[in-house]
């Protein structure tokens, strides 16, 4: 199979996961779906297809890949960016064969001629012979990252430890049958405890794990991230690049560039980029009744069953929490919100909500961008014109 192509079909309700990125760039495990596909199939995607609204920011994230162009006219494996549950057997699909998500009926993957890829990615399945998969494969709601979290992290850690070579560090206590992979540039302090009884632990390039921390696999610490003193990282946690993490964290995916630098519990959640979680902030990931969590995918939308008993919060990019914030089970907190309230945060909160004890109002876009520039500059990042344009689009849609 000479070509690997990914597409964002713009379907489902994926805010806030994909407000500021393509669906295949959402971190759905230790890796994004983009990087999982590349590692699993041993192919770097040669073309990407996305809706026009995110074409510019996608081209900046993937400067060496054709965006919405015409790929080489050769047999190609075309994969939906909303599909974390990749199957190695899809490499054996014949040209004209495709597989559908049984829940939504949307295309999960197909083998196509390169010349047909733009048409199929746009939803025209004419000429495809399709069959339904045995189980759901696509993310169609924000909370579906929880559904795919465990298998995605397991396959990612397996891919990341394929060439594992043991590394022993003085004073670090590590045990269990699974790999403990520590990059040569990572720094892990004496007194750190790493348990690999139930799955691997990967500490990536230039990551730092400070004294007294406990890491329980399966878990992933991404490049340039810091696990602060006496932190407990519980299973199925994946921390993206350039994060600072403290307190008790379990079953949570950090997209990257986020701060949780103080005590407080965070469980069964997804955290976007440029999020700051104030000291003592804690979330609930289980109802007192132990019932299935019910959520709204959009503010004012219908209640939906999530299929999850343990579900924390889905937190969009640039969300900020004041100290001592309390986040209720199944909260969907959309992009750009600011919370400084003593009452618990709950429900599906509209993007760019400024919430205090005095009430809520819309976060002014000029003020928001000033703060975003300041926050990003602290990590040496300057927001591009395309990024700011996309923020303005999301703000305009949320405050219309």
The total number of structural domains is: 2
**Distance between termini?**
46 Å
- What is the overall pLDDT average? 97
Helix coverage percent? 10-25%
The oligomeric status of these chains comes to: single chain
The rough form would be described as: globular
Q: Total number of helical segments?
A: 6
Count of distinct strands? 36
Radius of gyration: 21 Å
Which percent band covers the strand fraction?
25-35%
Uncertain spans, ≥5 residues at pLDDT below 50? Answer: none
CATH class of the largest domain: Mainly Beta
Strand order of the largest sheet: 9-12-15-18-21-24-29-32-34
Helix/strand/pairing class, anyone? alpha/beta
How does CATH name the architecture of the largest domain?
3 Solenoid
CATH topology-level fold name of the largest domain = UDP N-Acetylglucosamine Acyltransferase, domain 1
Main sheet attributes: strand count, strand direction, barrel closure: 9 strands, parallel
CATH superfamily of the largest domain: Hexapeptide repeat proteins
Task: Characterise this structure.
- The chain is of the alpha/beta class.
- It folds into 2 domains: 3-140, no CATH class; 145-399, Hexapeptide repeat proteins (UDP N-Acetylglucosamine Acyltransferase, domain 1).
- Helices cover 16% and strands 27% of the residues.
- The strands form 7 sheets. The chain has a 9-stranded parallel sheet with strand order 9-12-15-18-21-24-29-32-34, with helices on one face. The protein has a 7-stranded mixed sheet with strand order 3-2-1-4-6-5-7.
- A hairpin with a 6-residue loop joins strand 27 (294-296) and strand 28 (303-305).
- The longest helix is centred in the middle third of the chain and has 17 residues, at 144-160.
